Sequence to fold (892 residues):
Amino acid sequence: MAAGQHKDGVAAGRLSSAQIKHNFDDLHPPLDHHEALVESDRCYFCYDAPCMTACPTSIDIPMFIREISTGNPLGAAKTIFDQNILGGMCARVCPTETLCEEVCVRETAEGKPVQIGRLQRYATDVAMAKKKQFYKRAKNSGKKVAVVGAGPAGLAAAHRLAMNGHAVTVFEAKKKPGGLNEFGIAAYKSVDGFAQAEVDYVTAIGGIDIKYGKALGKDIQLADLAGKHDAVFLGMGLAGVNALGAPGDKSEGVRDAVDFISELRQAKDLTKLPIGRRVVVIGGGMTAIDAAVQSKLLGAEEVTIAYRRGQEDMNASEFEQDLATANGVVIRHWVQPKKIVAKGGKVTGIELEYTASKGGKLTGTGETVTIAADQVFSAIGQQFIAQTVNGNAETLVLAGGRIKVNDEGKTSMKNVWAGGDCVKDGREDLTVAAVAAGRDAADSINRALASNGRA
Amino acid sequence: MADIRNNFVGIKSPNPFWLASAPPTDKAYNVERAFKAGWGGVVWKTLGEEGPPVVNVNGPRYGAIWGADRRLLGLNNIELITDRDLYVNLREMKQVKMNWPDRALIASIMVPCEENAWKAILPLVEETGADGIELNFGCPHGMSERGMGSAVGQVPEYIEMVVRWCKQYTRMPVITKLTPNITDIRRPARAAHAGGTDAVSLINTINSITSVNLDNFSPEPSIDGKGSHGGYCGPAVKPIALNMVAEIARDPETAGLPISGIGGVTTWRDAAEFLALGAGNVQVCTAAMTYGFKIVQEMISGLSNWMDAKGHRSLDDIIGRATPNVTDWKFLNLNYIAKAHIDQDACIKCGRCHIACEDTSHQAITAFVDGKRHFEVMEDECVGCNLCVNVCPVDNCITMVPLKAGALDKRTGQKVQKTYANWTTHPNNPSAKQAAE
Fold:
C-alpha cells in the first residue's frame, strides 16, 4: 500500500482494490430492522415539529418515523414520497445536520438528534426494494410538458406532472439521468448505482419519456420547446464552472473538481483512476470536501483544502468538514491561490497568499506560502450559462446571473417554469431544495393547464 | 449502614428479597444459584399432591410485550405447577435448607380442595425443615380449570376453609397467596384472615392474552395455532399490585395482617414502594427471569443506600409508612390547588404538553407567543391535571406548583383557602352534610 501512495506525480492504483472498496463503502450504512425500531422510538412526535419546518420539502417527519416504529415502513415511505419523490436520495445526501437534525429537539436536549436521514433511508429502501408504486397516473390530460434536465428538479417535476396525467418529455444533455445525483455527489453517499435505481423507480409511474444527449441551446432550443409543448420546466442546473483565474491555471494537473467527481462517479474501476500524490483543493463548499475526501480515499498522500475565508464562512457543513479532517484532509483557512507553480507544463505546487477580512472586505496580506502539489482541483463555485436559454427568441429575465422566477417557479416567459440550481430564488443549492422547486413548479403548471388549457 | 434483615411472620432472612414461587425456584440447582447470588429467601415452585406429576405444554409457555428496544415490559405464562415428582422436590428442599440455614425457604402448595389432600401433604413438607408454606390460590391458568389455584382464590369461603385446615395440620406459618382476578381484593384477604392465616401474599398473575398473531390469528403464546389466557406479570402489573397491597393494608378488618408484596418488582425502588404501602417483604420473579439472579445485588445496595440517605435504620422504619396516605377520593383536599409550571430553560420545545392539553384536555398551554414557538401554561385555564407533566419527555421540566393559601386562582377567580375541605362537605354533593346555619 505504501509504495503506491508514495508514487510521485499523478498515478492510478495507489491502493489495493480491497482497500478502495472499503474506502468507498456506504458512508452511513443502512439501519437494520431493529436499529430502525430503536431509533424511531427516540422520536418524540413533536407538535408542529421543527424538523418538518426545516425540511425544504416539508416531509411529515414525526409521522413517517411513527409509522416505522409501528412496523409500517410502507406507510412511512408514502408519507415521505408524498412530499419528496426523491426521498431516497435525499436521505443519503441531505446535509441533515444543518436541516432537520439540526433542529431536532433531541439535539437541543442531549446533542444527539434522531437520525432522521437514516430512518428516511430505511423506509424508502423498503418501498423501493418491493418496487412499491404509490401513485397512479390521472386520466390522460392531453397536455404535453417538456422538462429540461433529468436531475433532481426535473425528475421531481416530471413525476408530479406525469401523476397529473400530462405527457412528459425530459430532455437530458448527458447520456445518463440523475444530474448531480449521478455525477456530482461523493461516491460513498450513493453506492450501488442508487441514482439510476431511483430514476427507474420515479419514472416507473409512466408517462415520462427521457431523451438523452439533448442539450439546451445546442441540440434543442427553448423557443421550439415552448412552441411545441403546453408548458416547459427548466431544471438544467449550473453547467458552467468558475475559473480559478490564477496564473498557471492551464498547467497539466489543474482541473475542475466537478469534472473530477463526475469522472470518479462514472469510473468502473477506481483502482484505474489516477490521483496525485499531493492534492490541493481550492474552495470551501461541499464540492471541495467531496473532491478532497475522495482524493484521500483514492490514496493521495497529502490532501489540502485551501479556503480564502475562515472556518465559520465555509459553505460545507461542520459535519462535512469533520468528515474531511477525519479522513486526513488538512483544511487551511485564510489563503487564496496566487499562482500555480509548474515545471515543464506540469503542476508542482501552488503559491497561496494569506488573506484577511478588513471591514468585511477580503484582501490579500501579501505574505505567501507555497505548497507542493501534483494536482490542483478548483471548487470555487458553478455558474449558470445564460446563452443556453437566450439568444434565439424571447429573452428570459435573469436575476443574479440565474433565471428569475416568481413564487410558483414561473419565469418571465408565458409557459415556462424553472427550478433548482439554475434559478435565483430563496432556496439553497441542495438536492432537496431542487426537488421542492420541481414539485412546486409542477403543481403550478398543473393548475395553469387545468384552468386555461394552455399555460 | 441500614439494617435490611427481614423478619416476616417469624421467618428470618438476611434481606427482604425473596424469589416468588415460579420457574426460577423449581429445583435445587436454581435455588442454590439464587442463594449464592444473595437472595434472602425463595418460595419453592408449587408442589402438587403425590402421584403422577402434572404435564406442561411442549410449545411456548410465555408471551410478552416489549418496549422499542425489546425491553420486556410484561410477561405472561401458561406453565403449571412443578412437573417434577413430589418426593424429588421434597428431598431437594430439605438439602437446600440444610445448606442455607440463614435463608428463608417456603413451600408453595396446591392440592385439591379436600381436607385429606392437605392433611396428607403438610407433614411431608414440614419434614423438609421448610420455614413456612404458601397456599397457591392464585394461578389463573390450567390448574384453575381443575378447581385449584385461582378457582379457590375467587371464592372467599374456600380460602377460609383451606386456611383453617392448614393451620390445624401444621405448625408452619401459613402465607395465603391471592389472585388479583377478582373485583375486590379485600374479600379474599378477609377470608384468609378469618381462617387464621399468618400472612397474605399478592398479587399472583393476571388473566391475559399478550398479543394476537396477525398472520394466523392465533393468540400468543401460540400452541399449534391456539392460545389460552395466561398469567400476566412483570413491570406492567406493578401499579395494580401496589393498589391491592394498599387496599388490604388499610382495610380495618385486615389491618396489621402481614403482606408479602408481589407484582412487577424489578428494582430496589419498586421494593421500597411495596414496603411503604404495607408489605413486610417482597417476592420477585419476572425481573430474575429477564436478567438472572444477580439483580438482587442492585436491590440490596439500592435499598440500603436509600435508607441510609433518608436515615431509615431498619425495615420497620419504612414498612407501612405510605399506608395512612392512601385514602378514598372523597377525602382528598379540594382546596389544594396546583398549577403546571414549565421551566423554560429545561424545555426542549417538543410541544407535546401543548398538543396533549389542546387536543385532549383544557387548552391551557400556548404553542406560540409573539409569533414564536413557545410553550407556557395559561394559569387561568390550567386545572392542574398533571397530564403535561406525564407526557413531557424531560425530567422535572414541568412541575406542579401548589398555590399558597391566600393566592388567587386565576381560573376560578377565587382565593386559595388554607382550610382543608373535601367532597363530603362540598355544596355540590347531594349527600353532603349541611353545616348548621
